[in-house]
Design a protein that fits this description.
With 503 residues, the chain is α+β, with helices and mostly antiparallel strands. The protein is built from 16 helices and seven strands. A five-stranded mixed sheet has the order 2-3-1-6-7. Strands 4-5 form a two-stranded antiparallel sheet. Helix 7 packs across helix 9 and helix 12 crosses helix 13. The C terminus is likely disordered.
């Protein structure tokens, strides 16, 4: 063979080896994830075939991989069986959904029967593709979406029931009824069980209402009795006054008669001694009448004073009771509007404040912004460290709202790990600066769980409210922006302006 042909053949062989190397590299990447041990060896082979290939070492490793594949055949077969089994179980669960269309259900049953005997279905990829087609058809019949909506409804009901129970459990930690309801909710319940819990909570609330109604009824009875006493006292006073007026009139008539008698005696008296004797007698009678009138007046005044003092005392007692009840009502209202865990305003308080602030903003024509905030991966914190740590996380983050937001901003716990903030008299640029400061401060908090530092972050949806639309529309937009932030990697703020720019 000539040297020229040798070089040509050598070049062709090199090109073939390069193609083979590329093929081996792509093939190894395609099957990556099949087996962890094989992946490690294939990665080594790929490195040897890159740049200046080392075919010798690559060949040695290939022999090791072949031996490894031979020894791991059972593992691969088991993995294939496991995959097929999971697909089969998923399809059986789908077949159990009541809302599945009958035609789709028939196809699913045919698919499941085919898994048992048909050889062309034994490849996991082929099986998965056919299963995916059936899932899509089920989605088209709204069966799966209905199930998902049911799950979301269950989660929402469970969350709101927990929030309703929290204040009662905090006030009465030894209440067995509330404790049992709380335990049931923490375990996760079906729709039927949730309905039972709702009935239990209604009974509990009715018990509190009846108890509170008893206290109100007692206060009303006390007021009624006091008013009756005051009324009776006034009647007695009026009767006494009428009697006193009549007695006074009689006394006046008696005095007038005595004075007339004195005048007649003066006219008829012939001797000075008789005049003195008559004058003395009539003056004694006159003095006795005056003394009697004075005594009756004094007794009447003392009775009136005693009655007034008694009425004043009873009215003071009523005022004290009314003030105590008023304070109790104020405390109950504050408690009803405060989240017991975070001490922030709750959803009811937020809606009350937001409605007022929104109306004021529309009247004055000033901007108002809204931020919906959600803790990232909060469920994993609860699952990994427990609900007590999750509760502590909520409390610490709530503390940051107070520290980082301005005094005019209104932050409330919306439910679960979600918060809402209303920023009155603030445009979107200023609001973005404030909520970003809040977000960064939370991400820098030194959370320590079981000796390990854990990074806690939040995602935020921020919108400047359109005052021509209902405030509920602004919340819907902010909520969509929140999920946009979640889907974009979390630990960030998405604003309405950014959505417009990216549209």
């Amino acid at each position: 063979m000539s040297e020229q042909n040798y070089k040509r053949n050598l070049l062709v062989a090199k090109q073939q080896l390069d193609k083979l190397s590329l093929f081996i590299t792509k093939l190894s990447i395609f099957f990556e994830g099949t087996n962890p041990k094989v992946d490690i060896e294939l990665t080594k082979i790929r490195k040897l075939l890159q740049g200046k290939p080392d075919y010798g070492k690559a060949a040695e490793l290939s022999a090791e991989v072949n031996a490894l594949l031979a020894s791991e055949t059972r593992y691969l077969q088991q993995q294939q069986i496991t995959t097929l089994s999971e697909i089969e179980n998923s399809m059986r669960r789908l077949n159990d959904v009541d809302a599945i269309d009958q035609a789709v259900r028939s196809e699913i049953q045919t698919f499941l029967e085919g898994l048992k005997g048909s050889d062309d279905l034994r490849s996991p990829i082929i099986v998965f593709e056919k299963a995916l087609v059936l899932f899509r058809r089920a989605l088209a019949s709204n069966a799966v979406s209905k199930t998902v909506n049911q799950i979301k409804t269950q989660q929402q009901i469970t969350r709101e029931l927990n929030e309703l129970l929290e204040p009662h459990l905090t006030k009465n930690p030894d209440d067995q009824v509330v404790s049992e309801l709380k335990d049931k909710l923490s375990k996760g319940l079906s729709i039927e069980e949730l309905l039972e819990c709702c009935l239990g909570l209604i009974r509990f609330v009715m018990r509190d209402i009846v108890k509170e109604a008893g206290a109100v009824n007692q206060l009303i009875q006390d007021i009624h009795q006091s008013l009756q006493n005051v009324n009776q006292g006034l009647k007695n006073t009026i009767e006494s006054s009428r009697s006193r007026i009549k007695s006074r009139a009689e006394q006046n008539a008696d005095l007038q008669s005595q004075i007339s008698t004195i005048e007649l005696a003066l006219c008829d008296a012939e001797k000075i001694e008789d005049l003195k004797a008559h004058a003395h007698t009539y003056l004694e009678k006159l003095q006795a009448s005056l003394n009697k009138a004075e005594t009756e007046d004094r007794n009447e005044s003392e009775k009136m004073l005693a009655l007034l003092i008694s009425m004043q005392k009873r009215i003071t007692e009523l005022e004290d009771k009314a003030q105590q009840y008023k304070q109790k009502l104020v405390a109950q209202r504050n408690e009803a509007l405060t989240d017991t865990l975070t001490k922030l305003p709750n959803r009811m308080a937020y809606e009350e404040f937001a409605s007022s602030a929104y109306k004021q903003a529309k009247i004055e024509g000033i901007p108002v912004c809204m931020a919906v905030i959600d803790i990232d991966h909060f469920k994993s914190i609860n699952d990994k460290y427990g609900h007590s740590v999750g509760d502590k996380t909520l409390q610490i983050i709530a503390g940051q709202f107070t520290k980082q937001l301005s005094k005019d901003d209104y932050a409330a716990r919306w439910g679960g790990e979600e918060f809402v903030v209303l920023l009155p008299k603030t445009n979107v640029n200023d609001a973005l600066e404030r909520v970003e400061k809040l977000r960064v401060s939370i991400s820098e908090l030194p959370f320590m769980f079981k000796g390990n530092r854990v990074s806690i972050t939040v995602s935020i949806g921020l919108v400047e409210c359109d005052l021509s639309q209902p405030i509920e529309n602004a919340f819907e937009v902010a909520d969509k922006l929140l999920y946009r932030a979640k889907n974009s990697g979390r630990n960030q703020t998405q604003t309405f302006l950014e959505v417009e720019e990216n549209a």
